[in-house]
Here is the input.
Amino acid sequence: ESERAAILQEIKVFANVQISVRDAIKIAERVSGAKVVDVSFDGQADRLAYRVKTYQHDEILAVTIDASTGKTIGDAVVTPVSALVAKDKIELAGFGTAVIDLSDVVSIAEAYGSGKAVSVGLDEENGKLIFLVVVVTDGSLKQISVDPNERNQLRNASIGKKH
Here is the structure.
């Protein structure tokens, strides 16, 4: 029950952000010069923010973007891909072959889910790479899977936990 209350509080806080997930993706790609592979909203921090990970030259660059101003917060953290767990390495390899970028994935999921994306990232479903988008719709969260190689293949399911 306390987990549900925390999710509802985060949804309420998210409703007041000025910067969308798509905006955060554009900002991070402009700042880093790399492609975004993961975005998650953090409504628990001192400032509302997006945690954004970009991928380029066998490195993951993690940046924090203020969800009210769009400015980066603090220093970026660089992690070599070689330091990642095997699952993450496999997902990144699949990301390189995707025919659709994250901004398009967010647009598709928001239209399909009739809501506003709160996070997006790589995941694996039945041995296949997918983009997983969490959308806030009517005060609840929907998880929407987008095949990175097909624009029209979508599946959704309501979820009861924070992504």
Observations:
- Residues 81 and 89 are 7 Å apart (CA to CA).
- Helices lie at 2-14, 21-32, 86-95, 102-113.
- The two ends are 17 Å apart (CA to CA).
